[in-house]
Automatic annotation (TrEMBL):
Residues 1-28 are annotated as: Disordered. This is DUF72 domain-containing protein. InterPro entries: DUF72, UPF0759_sf. Gene3D superfamilies: Protein of unknown function UPF0759. It comes from Comamonas endophytica. It holds the Pfam family DUF72. SUPFAM superfamilies: TM1631-like. Residues 17-28 have a biased composition (Low complexity).
Length: 351
């Protein structure tokens, strides 16, 4: 079974076009949910219950007719759109990405929890003040060494505790995404991994009464995909987050590290199509706007990811997959294609 978990699949076919967009509500302050085609409802009901898929965030006006029942201002969607988003049967999770840029409060997390149904779960990113080795300027350039890098107590106080208190049982995954490291850290992997393990063990101690919360580490440096990294994750009860991004190798080159942690959950963030390169977010945004169509199809990644999902959930493990518009052009459409591929390729495994 283990050897077959991550085998390749042929690309999934494109599903039929969705229904036309609903009525416009440009002046509304509480977005409504778009009608969901029956095909997607049936697909969602057939997916493995242990699978949760969703977007990297939710405030995109271009999802009109897919998620929203009409056009809304991005500020309205950011503030009140989660309730409509969470009504879509394929969207059972979402990544709270804004926590990476600034720590959120208990009340902010509680507000998100209050906008979502009981069976909804969140993926939350740790603030960069903990996971970035550099203090950066507004343009993203490193200014100086970050003295709080991988500070375990700061991680608990600014991230774990408020997320846990605010989201409660809806907290699904805590993601520690390490920003690209300085050469100094990359040449001292023993020191880096020791500090990372201390942080993860402190986090797991804080979560002692909440074993359902998954702790995952995502990296932006291929040099870290080594056995020593897997050993740290295993020792601390954490997992590797598949980061599908131009700075990282393709999915097939990351899967061996995930396989080495088996059995365990799957956490994947499909962030950026590799065609745009390691620094291609701006180009991807320009190419994909208004984010309502598949513009940069990536059937290879989708097929491998679908096979991984089917194998992991078929073996009784949970899977969280969040998808960005920058992956193929439209996260809701990518998720529908991914769901179809899971069902086509995973029936034998799940049975």
């Amino acid at each position: 079974m283990q050897d077959s978990l991550f085998d390749d699949l042929p690309p999934a076919p494109t599903p039929p076009a969705r229904a036309a967009a609903g009525p416009a509500h440009a002046g509304a302050t509480v977005p409504g949910a778009a009608p969901v085609p029956g095909q997607l409802v049936e697909m969602a009901a057939a997916l493995p219950p242990l699978l949760r898929m969703g977007g990297s965030t939710w405030s995109y006006p271009g999802w009109e007719g897919l998620v929203w029942d009409g056009p809304y201002d991005p500020s309205v969607l950011a503030k009140n759109g989660l309730t409509a988003y969470a009504q879509h049967p394929l969207l059972r999770t979402v990544c709270i990405d804004r926590s990476f840029w600034r720590p959120l409060t208990v009340s902010q997390y509680a507000g998100y929890a209050g906008q979502s149904p009981a069976d909804f779960s969140f993926v939350v990113k740790c603030p960069s003040v903990v996971t970035d080795a550099l203090v950066r300027a507004e343009d993203g350039r490193g200014r100086e060494t970050n003295p709080a890098f991988l500070d375990a107590e700061l991680a608990v106080a600014s991230f774990v505790e408020p997320a846990l208190e605010g989201l409660g049982g809806k907290l699904g995954v805590l993601v520690f995404q390490l920003s690209p490291l300085t050469w100094d850290w990359l040449t001292r992997p023993t020191d880096l991994f020791a500090r990372l393990q201390a942080l993860l063990e402190r986090v797991r101690l804080q979560l002692a009464q909440h074993p359902q919360v998954i702790v995952a580490v995502e990296v932006r440096d291929p040099e870290l995909l080594v056995p020593a990294f897997a050993q740290v994750l295993r020792a601390a009860g954490a997992t590797f987050c598949l980061g599908l991004h131009g700075k990282m190798p393709p999915i097939e080159e990351q899967l061996p590290l995930l396989r080495s942690l088996w059995p365990g959950p799957l956490v994947c963030r499909w962030n950026l199509n590799r065609r745009f390169g390691p620094y291609g977010y701006e180009d991807a945004q320009k190419a994909h706007a208004p984010f309502n169509q598949i513009v940069s199809p990536d059937p290879h990644t989708r097929a491998l990811l679908a096979r991984t999902i089917a194998g992991v959930t078929g073996a009784g493990q949970r899977a969280y997959v969040t998808v960005s518009n920058d992956a193929e052009g439209c996260a809701p459409r990518s998720i529908a294609l991914l769901a179809e591929a899971v069902l086509e390729g995973g029936a034998g495994v799940r049975g």
